[in-house]
Structure formats: structure tokens, C-alpha cells
Amino acid sequence: MRTAAYERLLADLGSTFRPQRQWVEGRGIFLILGHFLSGVGAGAWLFSLWLGYAPGLVLAVGTVAASGLAHLFFLGRPERFWKMFRARTSWIARGFLGMNLFLGSAVLALLLPAGALRTLCVAVSVAGAAVIIGYKGNVYAASRGVPFWNSPVLPILYATYAIRGGLALLLVVLPLTGGPAVPHRLDLLELWVAVSAAVMLGFYLGVMRNTNLAARRSVAELTGGRVALAFYLGTVGVGLLVPIVVGVAGFAGPLSETALALVGALSLVGDFFAKYAIAKAGIYLPLVPAGRI
Amino acid sequence: MAIDLKRCIGCYGCQLSCKAEHGTPPGVFFARVAKRELGTYPNTRLVFLPLLCFHCGDAPCVDVCPTGASHYREGGVVDITRDDCVGCRACMQACPYEARYYNEAQGEYFPGQGLTPYERTKYKDQNVDVVMKCNFCIDRVQAGLEPACVANCAARARVFGDLDDPHSEVSHLIRLRGGEQLHPELGTRPSVYYLPPA
Q1: Where residue B36 sits, what CATH number does that domain have?
Q2: ipTM value of the model?
């Protein structure tokens, strides 16, 4: 008797539109989690710096460190992780270097007293956070075997989601620590970024629907296939519509901290599902014309 | 390498001989044959497409590898240093030809009966949780032999040689028959050409 995984691989190899499973199923879910957490953490670091919000800075470092662990859980050979430094052409290596740069400098920035050295560490951490925000989308975009991801629009979409995730995390934790939420109008900013993410997502799907057969099929999987539930419920419903509606309601009167925290939490869920759905919808470039097997 | 689609009879000899040569575990196919039945009855035809690593001149898998495990060898062969692979599988997503496989487990070909002596011997030279792929049987080539899939092709559909030598048989055939690469629009410059059936 052959294993179910082997049978599924044979079925996948025989199909015209072979779905990618490595980066979303099994241990692949840790990669999605790692990408989600790293974006949220880097975004939260930038906004916490802007707000001068110390608990947010600590939380951001913890979130990025957790994302590093999630990445390690995904790797087949995590004990060799230190070899990932060939950044000349690899976006994974660039992300690895950016993450190390960020963690090292951010921890120092938290520990050092105010002064030139701390300013330098903050500057380096901002650069590291920028690399973290930028690398994920580029890792996917460099995947030429999966046309749905192989687009310059995807890194912009992922960066938008990372910035939004950082904001959302702060919206959740600010009420708990009595942080400076209202003076900086984070709620308005969250609404603006949520609308931007929705527009970017729509633009991305519109572009990919007109790219090639495999990308079109991926869009069909998202909008009406095996990924539709995660996409409509998680990415669109929970992640975009509800936060945007609540955000718009904020124009009628100031939102309570609880409402803002709810918007933040839903945005985080939507951020995760956006990454999950886009990864799950990936389909390899067909090699053989469609037909019966 | 050139693969003559006019001669290929879809016998899976290449796939089988590759498995025998490399002892790849279940779920890893350095060489395989994709089959499709096209058209509708009674106007149907069976299409075979033998697939393997195309050893691209501009290989996307090499570019995305974060450790340098995927690399070019002398003669243009794309290979993996198994002790450097971290199992990130970026190369699998980058390869437009589905030529790479993740070795999740050194499974038994006869489940419940344990590994055969043959499997035990072959698995010694393999790592689990890393990516594997065809290396054009580099050890055989260096020993003056043809790759296993070429040597064992019953229909003599495969021709192996030096593409840089304009006088080699493979270069001559590609010129004569109008050899085509798979998905040339991607700019990967594959080293495997298909000779069209007609």
C-alpha cells in the first residue's frame, strides 16, 4: 500500500495545473507564520519608534525573533541556517541578513542609553526593518516556476500588509498599556492602510488574471476554487471589509479603544490569511498541454 | 541533450533506469515521462514529454539558493551540494520545469517489508530533508559513459553531447531538426532540446 502523500504527489505530477504545496502545507505553514510575524514585527518597530512607544519596541523585537524561530521550524535542515548568507542573488539570504541586522541592532537600541551609539543602532534597525518588510514579497516574486507569484506587484502588496500589520499590532496592545493612540490618530492611519491594501490586492489580482494561463488559474482558485473560503472569509471579510467599515464608522465619532483593538486583531487575522491564500493559490507553470492523463 | 519526440514511445525506460542508477526514494523523480491524451474520440492522440533537469544556462534555482548549495559545475551541469542545502525549497518554486524534489523520507518501495539491501546502499549517499535533482549522471559522464537515461533509452530517442561543439551529434541534430527548448520565453537557456515529432 502506498502512502497518501505519495499518491497525491503522483496525482499532482499528472495534473496540468500542479498546485504548490511545499510552502503552505505541512511544515510550510511555519513559513507563512514566519512571513506574517516578521512583517508585523518590523512594521510595529517602525511605528513604535515614531510614537516613542517603548512596550511596542520590545514587542516588535519579540515578534521578529518569533518569526525567526518559525522560519527555522520550516527549514528541512535548520541546523545549517547559518549558511544562508549568499545575498548576491538570493532574497532569502537578504532577508536572513536583514533579520539578523535588525535583531542585533534593535536589542542594542533597547539596552543602550540615549546617545550617538544608540542613534546609530536605531538607524541600523530601521534599515533592517526595511529589508524585512521588503524581502518576503521578493522571495515569492523570484519564484519563476509559479507565475502567480512571479510579479513585481507582489512585493509592494506584501510591504503594504507588513506596514498594516505593524499598525494593527499596536492597535491591539496600546489599550492594554495606555499608549499614545489617540493623539497620533492611528485609527485613521489604519483605515488608510487597509484601503491601500484592498486596492493593492485588487490591482494584483487584476494584473495576474491577465498574465498567463497558470496565473489566471491561480486567481480562479482564490476567487472560486479550493482557496476561496480562506480568501473571502479571512483575507477579504475579516481582514479588509470589517476593519474598513469600522474605520469609516470612526468618522461619525471617535472609536472606543476596544473597537480599535478589535480592528487591529481582525487586521492581523486578515494579514495572515492574505499570505496563506496567496501561497496556497500558487500553481506551477504547466509543462504539457491540457488533456486526459 | 536532445530528446527526439518522434522516437519516444513513452516506455518509461528513462525514468526506471534513472531510479536504478541513483536509487532515488519514492516521490523523487530525476527523470519522468509526462503523458497526455489530447483531443476527443475518435480524433485523439497520445503525447509523451520526457522531463528531467534542463541544466539551464541561466538557472533560476541557482539564483534563489541562499546557501550556494545549488551551483553550476564544469560543463554547465547544475548540481546541488547536499551538505549545504537547508531545505528551504526556494529552488523548487523557482524552477519552471518541476525538476526538483524534496526528499522528505527515505521510504520503502515495499511498505511494511523494510528497506531492501539495494535501498539501504543507495540511501547511504542521500540526505533527507533536502532537495534533490538530476545531475546528468555526472559520475557516469566523467567515467566516459552516457547518462543512464540516454544509455537505456530503447528507442534511442536521447542524444547526449557537447552543445558548445558545433560538430557534435547533438548540435547537428538540433540544427537539422529544429530543436526546441521548453518555455524559451523565460530566458533560462535550457540545455535540453526537444526534436519535434514532425
Answers
A1: 3.30.70.20
A2: 0.93
